[in-house]
Amino acid sequence: MRKSHLAGERTARVVFALGVYWLLVALIGFYASRCCAEEADAIGQPGTSLPALGANPGAAVGVGAGLSAAAGAGVPSAAIASPLRNVNGANGEAPATAWLAMPNMIGDFVNSGGFFRRAPDFGSIPTETRYKVMDDNNPLPTDRVFFDYQHYAGAVDNVTSPTDLNHFLFGAEKTFFDGMASVEVRLPLDQALSAIQPTPLPVEASGTEFGNIALVPKVVLLREDDWCISSGLGVILPTARSSVITLAGTTTTIENQSVHLQPFVGWEWQPNERWFTMAFVGFDFDPHGDPVISGGGIAGQLFDQNLFSLDWKWGYWLYQNPSARFLNSVAPTIELHYTTAITDGTTVASGAATYGPEVAGIGRWSNLNITGGIHCAMGKSMLTLYGAAPLVSQFDPATGALSSFFSEFGVQLDRRF
Are 125 and 244 within 8 A, CB to CB? Predict the structure, then answer.
């Protein structure tokens, strides 16, 4: 019954989220068509004129137009405003079309790794929150600061019912070597359950926890005017608090000591002034694990499951106006995110409880999620509103709980400099 109820609730959330998404797309499309109609009427008014012959057509539409169109207008290929070439400018100059840079991968990820289940009550206690460095990322290195907020419904399997998770992320990225490499830092905060759980069941203490800081170096491997391939490595440092749980008179500490490694390869391509696509392939390895301390000694070592992920994004520039004072461009996007465990997790017995990854009961799990977003470019800033929901998620046979989340809503704000 619980499994059927959760499945129905998940389906309703997916339908609702997709309905809201396409309603927003329709409204923005209507607004864009009105703006284009007003601009077309203005061209025919006295005092206005068409662009001079030989002017860069990329400047008129705000993106790098095709080479054939540029050649026909007598414009050298070096002057074409390529969306990949001009993200950070050239030779120290300000970017000519920074607002046109391809929107970042939004992402979807919240993983049960980082929350350890204690038996026999099957509640969850938080350790470090696990996340992907490919979320809100771009294969092309970019000078930027950014802030993300994500609300995950039903992400934490509490003792009594699934608990929501609020995730906050502050970050900055700086490029080097003429924009061919960058280093990024991410500072996360999570609001759900506290890492310190002294209260007796079924009461669980809530709280806001500082997460694990991530350092992400990235380098471009291949780059052309309309596509690039890059590779990077996310290093997730154990800066979050260790978990302390008191159960049946036994105090257990799960030390936060593991350094997660997330190698990835990214690719993006913008074949024309409207369509664009992007993809990431990555892994998440836990090479060290977290020691479990009980009764003054080490009871064992907990390892998160190693993960493989594939993320793909498609988008379309629905509206473009580089001369607008406020809203320069709008792009709706759709993303698919596949994540699967490639190793089994471990369990450690301590007192009356057994601790292990929350998904240990189902072994090699996998999730397929969908994300729909609206990217709004305003000068050098990019504001993104989005929603995500599971398409395929495994159920835990022990509790009937989802191994992922019910739904997600988020806001991302990037500012280039």
Answer: no
